[in-house]
Amino acid sequence: MSLVLRCARLFVALMAGCVSFLCSAQGNSSSADEDTRKIISELQTALIAQNYQAAFDKANSGVDEFAGDPSFDFLYAQAALEVAKYDEAIFALERVLVNWPDHVPSHYLLGLTYAKQKNYSQAQTILQGLRSAQLTKAMRQNVDRALASIEERSNQLEESYKHAISLALGHDSNVNSGALDDRIVIGGIPFLLDATSQKTADNFMRFRYNFRAKWQQTQYDAWKLDVDYSDQRHQDTDDYDRYQGTIRVGYEHKKDKAAFSVGGQFGVLTLDDNTYQQDFGLYGSVQYYFSGNWFTAFSGFVFLQNNVQDRNLDSRIYTIQGGLGHSSKLWLVRLDAGYTWQPARYDEGEHYGRDYDFISGSVAHRTSQNSLLTFKAQYRDIEHRAVHPFFLETRNEELVILNLNWRYQWDDAWSVDVSASYYDKHSSITLYSYDRTEWFTGVRYEF
Questions:
Q1: Which domain holds residue 84?
Q2: Do 268 and 129 share a structural domain?
Q3: Which residue from 145, 351, 375, 404 could staple onto 386, CB 3.0 to 4.6 Å apart?
Q4: What is the largest CA-CA distance in the chain?
Q5: What does residue 82 show for φ and ψ, rounded to 5 degrees?
Q6: Are strands 434-446 and 242-255 parallel, antiparallel or unpaired?
Q7: pLDDT-derived band of residue 271, with 50, 70 and 90 as boundaries?
Q8: What's the CATH code of the domain at 109?
Q9: For the segment 66-82, what is each residue's pLDDT rounded down to a tens digit?
Q10: Is 241 within the bounds of a domain?
């Protein structure tokens, strides 16, 4: 429990006493009635007994009738803070301060509420303003402690950095399937069956490094940086050794049930020590929790892909997708559907251009406190944009991708991963059909 919330709970009894003062003031008013006194008494009893959810439910059910009464609003704010209903607490405290602008406990509780919202600048302003007020020794000590806690948390919130390195050993049943998929072409004419285009199985070792940084601007806004690098080496087919790097920079806004992000990405793929492909572009996404644990999400991507080895593979990629999901403590289930346009940049490569519909689903289940099991599946219906110059027909393809992953977390730093993937592609031009199975196991260290 944070120091800020402990401060709030230590003063529940004190604040309840302050409410008694407010009640007395209200009792002198001709507008006071038995219903108001009854609900205030019930809220005081529930708060002192630390039955916070019951107190909030009771106050929330009577807010239309009793809002505006400072005694009720003050108790409502206490209950709302305890059950993390911060906006409701702020509105209630502002109503109290309209009637009692010098009420110290309300200012104090308002500062704590802003701190729980991570609006540290506003919290500091309110609590520092209390230092010039007439405070008891105990209240002054708690204001000082709250300010110290807020300053510490503000410093932590401003920036955070996280590194992760992993090493995995695995097996690929079709290392060079990319050659048949026409995204990766190494040597010779891509539609001729030679030694480089035959199905080849091989073992591999993969090293990966990931760096994530976050710079929080306000309680809602942050800038993010994600750098990912992987180095995959094969036992026999070293022509397919690959280095891949991605840099992603973005802005994120989160408030209440909604989240919005936008940014840019740059990536490089190197095969056999030679740069093969570069891509860069923009992305954006929106997520909204509309009912309890249910959420919906929409995203879009615009990328330019530059193939250094064959300019006919240069393309532009436009993707839109939407999804529906359910999140709980142990489960995360999500279903997405979308469409991708991928026209070639040059007319002579238009037969490589393609558009496809896709649907994907994922299920993540926390099987224990330290382990997470994830399953993902995707189906793509692919249509190419022009007749193939050699086979004299337009390619139509279907691709199925399945992935199963299990991660066991030894402690905060070390974890082990076991993963298996399966790819099955059927093409109207048989040469471009393939199946592929990949599995690996490895360790991961985060710091």
A1: 3-157
A2: no
A3: 351
A4: 97
A5: -65, -25
A6: unpaired
A7: confident
A8: 1.25.40.10
A9: 999 999 999 999 999 99
A10: yes
**How far apart (Å, rounded) are the C-alpha atoms in residues 386 and 349?**
9
Nearest partner of 269 among 278, 261, 282, judged by Cα: 278
Q: What are 292-346's pLDDT values in tens digits?
A: 899 999 999 999 999 998 898 999 999 999 999 999 989 999 999 999 999 999 9
CA distances from 197 to 174, 333, 434 (A): 10, 38, 11
Task: Answer yes or no: do 17 and 146 share one domain.
Answer: yes
Distances (CA, A) of 305 to 2, 64, 344, 356: 48, 57, 9, 17
Handedness of CA 72, 78, 81, 83 (dihedral sign): negative
**Beta bridge mates, 291:** 294
Of the candidates 215, 212, 117, 99, which has an alpha carbon nearest to the alpha carbon of residue 157?
215
pTM: 0.70
> Do 71 and 190 belong together in one domain?
no
CA distances for 446 relative to 164, 368, 414, 415, angstroms: 4, 20, 7, 9
The number of distinct structural domains making up the chain is 2
* Cβ-contact 407, 372 below 8 angstroms: yes
- Cα 240 → chain centroid: 33
Query: Are 148 and 242 part of one and the same domain?
Result: no
Which amino acid type is present at position 375? F
Residues 32-57: what's their mean pLDDT?
88
Angle (CA) 344 238 311, round 5°: 15
Residue where a domain terminates, one of 157, 191, 211: 157
Looking at 122, 157, 192, the residue that finishes a domain is 157
